């Protein structure tokens, strides 16, 4: 921007402010006043301009197509008719769009300017975080509306190359302006996939947002135990935590300082109900033991591919977390029948269980679960090659309300087990028999006869006659059949 533009903005008066943000810069932005009627070069002008609202360049996805230099009106693209105030150049690196009020050259106001504030707030409520920051640069009215606390119950950031630490620091700082040092409205922070997020970004959230209830940082491999401990210690209402794909996270616990400050009765308890630690490869029995002891309110726990967990960890889980309703242990290959016996102690609470590819599990473990968890609705035992028709018989007798079952790649499951299952679990809706070599048309005909509510049937890599599949389609009209049989269409 040349010297002429500097003169123009300098003459707008005290009510205007200008914005400059460099994505490659890590400095904080604080409001300052621009001298009147001072013409400066481009470099000096940028160094003097400061940020009154976070720049969308901080939170836009750098992988998206770059914005070309174009004329905008107060941060929005000018209309083809040319009605609007002189615009500014917008790039991915620097954004100049003061939220001050300028005299309009339009003879008539835009239709959107006639809408009442309440209607505009409802429109802005549907915008993602980057676009909401962009709207704050249109004019003074939009600035005030865009930063209405009711619109900032959540922050959602995306992009592998995003400077997530800086974005969270700037946003939380701005949200704390009305209530110094604390933001009482923010309840959700989602930064999944932001590979550059580190403990510094979560430190800003923990320091400023005590009312946080949901945090998702999946695949942020630079996040460690230290930041997670601080968040759960400073955000006592946190209920939903997703740290899947964070290999440096090995435990969930309070910081030592927080434990000392709380009473002995409540000092060890965390309010988390939903915890996803999928692909936290370093999680071991000791870590899960600590999690179970500190998070007694857990209802949803996902531990997929935590390969170091053993049966002893399941004992601690059942002992301290009796309210677990959904549990995933897929690919935890060290867990066997003894571990399922401990899981069965959850009794009437368990609804969802996944033990896919846990090769040590046999009919014995399934019998424990079926006997003590009669309200089980979903079971994924894909790849448990020790499961036979006897295991299906236990499920049929004890879990009549079963809705979804996956026994794919269980070569010992045959028509006899399917017949018992079909007669007892008439409400079955999803069934996968993929690569079950012993299944023939007899078992499928039993399903067609008794399970009229079936919605999905997977028989890929199974040698079944097309006539049996046609029978299923005829009796289960809403059923989608996944198959690899060319003769069936």
UniProtKB/TrEMBL annotation:
Chain segments carrying region Disordered: 1-83
Annotated Gene3D superfamilies: 1.20.1280.50, Ribonuclease Inhibitor
Ranges for domain F-box: 109-155
Residue ranges that the Swiss-Prot or TrEMBL entry lists as coiled coil: none
Annotated Low complexity bias: 10-26
GO cellular component: cytoplasm
InterPro entries: F-box-like_dom_sf (IPR036047), F-box_dom (IPR001810), F-box_LRR-repeat (IPR050648), FBXL15_LRR (IPR057207), Leu-rich_rpt_Cys-con_subtyp (IPR006553), LRR_dom_sf (IPR032675)
Keyword field: Ubl conjugation pathway
Ranges annotated as biased composition (Polar residues): 27-55, 66-81
Pfam families per record: DUF7885 (PF25372), F-box-like (PF12937)
The name this protein goes by in its record: F-box/LRR-repeat protein 7
The organism of origin for this protein: Chanos chanos
Gene giving rise to this polypeptide: LOC115808580
């Amino acid at each position: 921007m040349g010297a002429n533009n500097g003169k123009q903005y300098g003459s707008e008066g005290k009510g205007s402010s200008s914005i400059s943000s460099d994505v490659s810069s890590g400095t904080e932005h604080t409001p300052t006043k621009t001298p009147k009627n001072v013409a400066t070069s481009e470099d000096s002008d940028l160094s003097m301009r400061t940020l009154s609202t976070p720049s969308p360049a901080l939170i836009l996805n750098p992988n998206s197509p770059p914005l070309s230099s174009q004329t905008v009106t107060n941060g929005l693209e000018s209309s083809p008719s040319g009605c609007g105030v002189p615009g500014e150049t917008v790039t991915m690196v620097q954004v100049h769009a003061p939220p001050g009020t300028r005299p309009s050259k339009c003879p008539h106001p835009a239709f959107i300017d006639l809408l009442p504030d309440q209607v505009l707030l409802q429109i802005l409520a549907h915008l993602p975080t980057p676009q909401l920051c962009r709207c704050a640069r249109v004019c003074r009215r939009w600035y005030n509306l865009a930063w209405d606390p009711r619109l900032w119950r959540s922050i959602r950031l995306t992009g592998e190359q995003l400077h997530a630490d800086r974005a969270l620091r700037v946003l939380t700082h701005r949200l704390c302006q009305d209530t110094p040092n604390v933001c009482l409205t923010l309840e959700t922070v989602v930064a999944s996939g932001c590979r550059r997020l580190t403990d510094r970004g979560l430190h800003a959230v923990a320091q400023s947002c005590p009312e946080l209830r949901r945090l998702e940082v999946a695949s942020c491999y630079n996040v460690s135990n230290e930041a997670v401990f601080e968040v759960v210690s400073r955000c006592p209402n946190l209920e939903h935590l997703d740290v899947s794909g964070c290999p440096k996270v090995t435990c969930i616990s309070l910081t030592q300082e927080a434990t000392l400050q709380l009473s002995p009765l409540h000092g060890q308890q965390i309010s988390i109900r939903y915890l996803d630690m999928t692909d936290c490869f370093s999680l071991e029995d000791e870590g899960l033991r600590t999690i179970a002891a500190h998070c007694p309110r857990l209802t949803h726990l996902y531990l997929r591919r935590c390969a170091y967990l053993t049966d002893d960890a399941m004992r601690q889980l059942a002992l301290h977390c009796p309210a677990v309703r959904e549990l995933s242990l897929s690919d935890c290959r060290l867990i066997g029948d003894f571990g399922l016996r401990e899981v069965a102690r959850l009794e009437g609470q368990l609804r969802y269980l996944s033990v896919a590819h846990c090769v040590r599990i046999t009919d014995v473990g399934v019998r424990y679960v079926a006997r003590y968890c009669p309200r089980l609705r979903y079971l994924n035992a894909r790849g448990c090659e020790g499961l036979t028709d006897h295991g299906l018989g236990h499920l049929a007798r004890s879990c009549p309300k079963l809705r979804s079952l996956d026994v794919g790649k269980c070569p010992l499951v045959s028509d006899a087990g399917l017949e018992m299952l079909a007669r007892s679990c008439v409400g079955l809706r999803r069934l996968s028999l993929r690569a079950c070599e012993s299944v023939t048309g007899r078992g499928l005909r039993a399903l067609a006869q008794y399970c009229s509510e079936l919605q999905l049937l997977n028989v890929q890599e199974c040698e079944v006659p097309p006539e049996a599949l046609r029978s299923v389609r005829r009796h289960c009209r809403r059923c989608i059949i996944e198959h690899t049989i060319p003769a069936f269409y």
